[in-house]
Amino acid sequence: MKAGDLLTISPLIALTLTPVVVMLFAAFRRSHGLALGLTLGGLAVTFGTLFVSASRTARVVTPLVTMDAYALFFIGLLTVATALVAVLSWSYLGRLRVRPEEYYVLLLTATLGGAALVAATHFASFFLGLEILSVSLYALIVYPVHRADAVEAAVKYLVLAGATSAFLVFGMALVYAEAGTMSAAGVAKLVAGGLGSQQVVVTVGIVMILVGVGFKLAVVPFHMWTPDVYEGAPAPVTAYVATVSKGAVFALLLRFLLPVSSDQSSTLFLALAAVAVASMVAGNLLALRQDNVKRILAYSSIAHLGYLLVAFLASGERAGVAAGFYLVAYFATTLAAFGVITVLSTGDRDADQLSDYRGLGARRPVLAAVFAVALFSLAGMPLTMGFIGKFVIVTAGAGSALWALVIVLVLTSAIGLYYYTRLIVVMYVRRPEELELAGAGPAARVAAAGGAAGVVVLAALTAFLLVFGVYPSPLLRLVEHAVSTLPWP
Amino acid sequence: MLGLLWLIPALPAAGFLALVLLNRRLDRTAAAWIGAGSVGLSALVALLVCGSFIVSPPAGDAYHQVLWTWMDVAGFAPNIGFYLDAVSVLWVLVITFVGFLIHLYSTEHMEHDEGFTRFFMYLNLFVASMLVLVLADNLLLLYLGWEGVGLCSYLLISFWQKDPQNVYCGRKAFIVTRVGDTALIAGLFLLFTQVHTLEIQPMLAAAQESFVPGSAVAVAAALLILGGAIGKSAQVPLQTWLPDAMAGPSPVSALIHAATMVTAGVYLIARTNVLFTLAPDARLIVAIVGTVTLLLAGFSALVQHDLKRALAYSTISQIGYMFLALGVSGWEAGVFHFMTHAFFKALLFLAAGVIIEALADEHDIFKMGGLRRELPAVFWTFTIGAAALAALPFVTDGFYSKDLIIATSLGSVDGNLWFYAGAIVGAFVTTLYSFRLVWLVFFGERHTEVSRRPRRRQLVPLWILAVLSVVSGLIWMPPWLAGFHPFETFLDTALPPIEFTGEYAHFAESALGALVTISVVVVGIGIAWLLWMPWRRGTHAFSESPAVRPLAAYWLGGWGFDWVYERVFVIPVKWFARVARNDLVDHVVDGIAWLNVAAWRTLSAGQTGRLRAYVAVAGFGIALVLAVVVLR
Amino acid sequence: MASVSLDHALVLAAILFAIGFAGLLTRRNLIVVLACIEIMLNAGGLAFVAAGARWGQADGQVMFLFVLAMAAAEVAVGLAIAIRFRQSLKSLDVDDADEMKG
Amino acid sequence: MILLWYILIPAVAAPVAWLLGRSRPALARWTAVAGTTAPLVILAGQWITKASALQATFAARGPGPAGLVAGSWIADVKATWIGSLGISFFLAADGLTIIMLLLTFALGLLAVLASWRGITKNVGVFHLMILWTVAGLAGVFLSLDLFLFYFFFEMMLIPMYFLIAVWGHEKRVYAAIKFFIFTQVSGLLMLVAIVALVVIHGRETGVYTFDFTQLLGTQMAASTAFILMLGFFFAFAVKLPAWPLHTWLPDAHTEAPTAGSVLLAGVLIKIGAYGMLRFMVPLFPDAVHDFRTVALVLAVIGIIYGAVMAYGQSDMKRLVAYTSVSHMGFVLLGVFAWNTLALQGVILQLVCHALSTGALFIMVGGLQDRIHTRDMGRMGGLWQVAPRMGGTAMFFAMASLGLPGLGNFVAEFLILVGVWQVSHWAAVLGAVGLVFATVYALWMMQRAFQGEETHGWSFADLTKREVGMFGAMIAALVLLGFWPQPLITTARQTVTGLQEMTAASSLAQPRPTAEAGDPAAEAAAAPADDASGATSLADDEGAQQ
What we know:
The structure holds four protein chains of four kinds.
Chain B: H1 7-21, H2 28-55, E1 63-69, E2 79-84, H3 86-109, H4 116-135, H5 139-157, H6 164-195, H7 200-210, H8 216-232, H9 241-244, H10 250-259, H11 264-271, H12 273-278, H13 280-302, H14 307-327, H15 331-358, H16 376-390, H17 397-411, H18 417-442, H19 456-471, H20 486-492, H21 505-509, H22 511-532, H23 536-544, H24 549-556, H25 561-579, H26 584-606, H27 611-631
Antiparallel strand pairs in B: 1-2
Chain C: H1 6-26, H2 30-55, H3 59-89
Chain D: H1 2-23, H2 25-59, H3 64-71, E1 75-82, E2 87-93, H4 95-114, H5 123-142, H6 146-155, H7 157-167, H8 172-205, H9 212-215, H10 222-239, H11 248-255, H12 258-283, H13 285-312, H14 316-337, H15 340-371, H16 382-385, H17 387-400, H18 407-422, H19 424-448, H20 464-482, H21 485-501, H22 520-538
Helix pairs in contact in D: 1-2, 1-5, 2-4, 2-5, 2-22, 4-5, 4-12, 4-15, 4-21, 5-6, 5-7, 5-12, 6-8, 7-8, 8-10, 8-11, 10-12, 10-13, 11-12, 11-14, 12-14, 12-15, 13-14, 13-19, 14-15, 14-18, 14-19, 15-17, 15-18, 15-20, 15-21, 17-19, 18-19, 18-20, 21-22
């Protein structure tokens, strides 16, 4: 660990120091504004150090962590996302009548975990990152302790996360026992060599690792927790779970199991393909006639992970670019959608009932427009990033002849249209009596004055969605540069 | 002078446009002047043009005037152009002259109708379309006129549109004629594909070369054209619409359903006679259709109660004669009978109009009677018309033209005994029903009072037509009577002459043949007099007797065609439309939607909310994958 | 002392793991569920130690230390949540927590 | 650069209309009028000046498809859009595009005029949506890059969806979602087909591009070509609509506001036909040839099924909607007949159908504004109440049943003659469809306008604005009926170009021998090309673009 290496891993160091600083200041003077300021400052510093690290030539720092362009890109993405979530939480926490400082600490530690994951090239950093992220999330989900939903959600998340981490550990142990290697390169070599019949134990190990990853990505067999946790957790935390947690783990999956996509007849490939199809179908179907907005977005995120898996299973650098771009689009869209929910939520109840959104077009035209753009982006309509994202995935899929997966993607996204447009109709259709809403009570008086900061963030996100929806080339080039450093076959 | 040819159809069209645009600001007299005036002017121009054509025929006995190229698509370049030859001269003169008389009559007859302007609007459009039809130099433009007259007949039949029944009759007419038009348009496709042009004269020339006589293509083309003619001229399969067309005002029936439109089929076949000469089987079918129609319509006319329906059936019968003539390649005979028929049938309809108007819209002939003294003028003109219809020998034009047809049906190259027998029986029945009308309407005791006397503008056309019904036959005297047949020589410039070369040709042309026809007519009149004058009550009782009643009813209903069509075509379509109102395919789509919702319901039931269920599902998933891995 | 072969250790770890998972599926008390997760994690740790022994590297044991640390953190937060669970749902029965479904 | 204006003017006018609409609604309407008439005027100017030039450039173009493709466009705008994926912002216009653009802007204007008084709530957003749709339509007709085409093809969905969902009638939510899903799903399948085509082309020539002119000659296995063709056909058949995929149309048209119906019936469904003409057939000529019989069967069913369904409806607007299904059946016939006559007929039918159905929708919309119902059971005898409206309705009913003397007849006749040369039974059944058309047209007239006036309706006859609109459309239809030549000459270059693109395939038929009709210039070029066109298309190495 030479001095130079410290510079290389400076982003991780910055991310570690920030929560510590926030904790120290919270100990002296409890002020919400200060906590947020420090958090944002810390994240800005981290973002700065990215360029420092990028300028360093030495990439590998101890076998645990590699700060290559891929890692730096995703750390940047996670940092920006966390900053946005923090700003969105500002007014939300104000209304929540709980002490806000610890929230930011937890947020930062979770991001640190995510950053570690993204840079991990060894089982150890993989496991550590994952667990730091998970434990921070347990606390974040149950932050409004007075809410029964939050507690229920936290319990479910905790138990399932614990169980799947156990699977992860056991899987790693098996792989280490058989193959003797714990590094990403080693695993990649194993997978590339073709997990033939004689390497059963290693395959079982890798499958058990996938259980841990699968849980965090909430793909089908492990998706059951998603709606309950999304509904129970506070809105900004849900946004965080839906974006940073899934994004970081997917980045890791791409780095560790890259060669899976090259051999389309291997068991792993077939298993993952089945998971992808199941996620797309179940995700879209479950959300069809759902009346709770958060649960709709939960199921829709399951489906979107299915689309991402299609990109992962497609081979070649083009697939990596597709996955990267789609992740960015997914981040922006989900943050915008949940941002709207956060801004509309009141102290005692999140705005997740469909009736809260009736006639939103008239009451809050800006928020309604943001939500509409986000929904259109989720549906993959032109002018939004979602459209370009879906297009690049279809191109990647077609490039490696995954016709079945592409067709399933297309047909299931059609089902998606129904519930996305259903939300839009609720917002813009004036006469309530026509809506076939079960128990459409009077619209709850949602918070009148949403946080100004929140609305600014949302406006920025919408602009981001539209600009890169119409002219995506610069972002595509950035993702290409980032993904190029991975060891493509 | 021929250059003014395009004015003939243009004037009524201009009249139509004027009436449409100035509709609101016109009072009755102005509308009458524009309506009748435009057709009158057109008749004048027609006289000038046709006169100069007859006096100094242009080169090749035909004058072709092209206004502009209608469309030009890769070799298919029909143009808006007019072609004048002997046949179209005749048709133009009849249309414009009879048309003008009927317009004159209508200015009086439709006096109190609030849709006065609208009536003349449609009438002008009709005359314009008919003129385009007969003057068109290519089949596509002919088709334009063809459909135009179909439209106007629909508009005019359902003119009194307050009563849904009239509108139903109008719709029936338009739809049935359009069935025929489908055959015609298919014919156009076939002809264009075979000879690459639709301009009539070059097309016929090309057909002459490329079609092998009697070959499938020639027969198909001829039959398709026959299909169109059958629809428009209300021949056997498609004749059900004409009796119902009587729902329209009487001048309409006179102009459209007697004189001009219904003969469009005859014009078309006469115009494309080359195709029929190339397809003997098609000619045979035309003759058969003609014969069957004239008999069938004749018998139906015998039992009608409604005056106008009787005349309608008689029109179908007379056009049957024309088709018979065309069928036995007596083209000129058919055309000659068209002319004479136009005069006396228009006369009969106009007279019927006056009678019905006089008896306050009474249509049933059994409620008329004894009008001889009340409406003497109408009596005389109607009787002349009826006599011409029955072909009273020597004094009526009907005699000359119908006898020529009967002679041709026997003596011409295609003629045979069956056609001759049919024609003779037809003649006999015609005589019966025409004089039946005369005796029942004008003789016997009076049932309803006469409320309105016909005015001068109604009687003048009647007398002119009556005179024409007598005189117009003289222009083509049969050889045994006198060698004077300028009309035939005039027609020879456009149509092949009739060759009396059949085995009975000598007998047919001789005075003896004519004697047979004359005797049939005279006997017919006698029997008619007996049946409906002295023995009127007996005849009535006989027709009511249980044995005869069903037959009479069968004939009254037009031989059951309507009954069959209703069951075979109309009811299934209505049933399907009602059953599939909300779109069968939609059920499939809704089915798919239901499937999705059902899948949603089962899956969301799976989300029980219990933690251990979630772990179980995860466990099941893992077990499944591990099993696959281990076993594979 | 004769060394224990890798396979025996892995089988033991697998059995331990299965027991933990079975407990997770059947037991309804939240505390016991947390204990089961502990068992599963320790089974993983044991496997790591065995693997480390086989390759003669310290990595296995270092990983075990990480696993221990993580398990401790998780149980700490878990028990805190269990207390809140007891307060809000008046019972520790995991099946009571089924407000959110559909 | 003018081509870009056609998209930009309505696109810019849209937000302006919205902003102005917030303060004074009338301003929004006038902006919308400006937003549609301005490009119309520019286009008319370009049509008159450039059309003749187009003939010259087309005649003087080089042999073979590359030359054909280069020479046959009036103007084109080419800029790279997403370089890494080979997507370019490629606009080009030829005869067919000019006609379709004329249609788009004219009907956009009519849509705005038709809802002058009908729309009262949030007028600004309404006109935003209309102008956005018009901009999208212009984009579709101009784009030659398959991705750009797909981009505009899908982009139009959003405003049309809102037009139906927010300003529609009773069942508008159901209709809007149905329309949205139908078009989106079929669009996505087309996207998969496009991407597959690009990948195949890329693997074959190493160049990954979405540029249609380069994708033109891609050689691939017959079975793959057939599947890709199906992908395209599915999208355009839903849009057209062809028989089994048409069920969205009656709902969408009935529930949409008048302006929405006019745009939908007038231009949106024309994209299906345009897409088939421009992209589907030239890209997969042999697959189209194999698929022809099935398509003809679908078309004929569409014609007759649409007509019978129209006859069975009691809602007047739904009746008119089903007539579109029937008329578009003719278009499908014409496209798959793929000879000059049929194609000219198809292009003419697109224009005439837009006019006649657009007018009928405006008529029904006007009627609904007056008597607040579309159910013909409660109408009857309206001719007495509003004779001028009755007369106009009669005219457009005649147009829709294909009365000779009006544009629809000329179009349908050309189509059927073209189809006759390909398959006799299809042409005959198509002609029979005309009879069914008569049945529903007259049935509509009887139920609504003729017969006894029993419901005591009394309302104002056509206003001056409506008379102006209908007058213009009547004049246009009659002019097209008697003198369709301007349209035919404008489209001739496109039709010849399209046929040469498929010259080497089994689709090409011997053109009718008598070439006398065409002007000398064009004739001189055509025969010369037949020979060379066939050979060079086979070994197509990427065009010089």
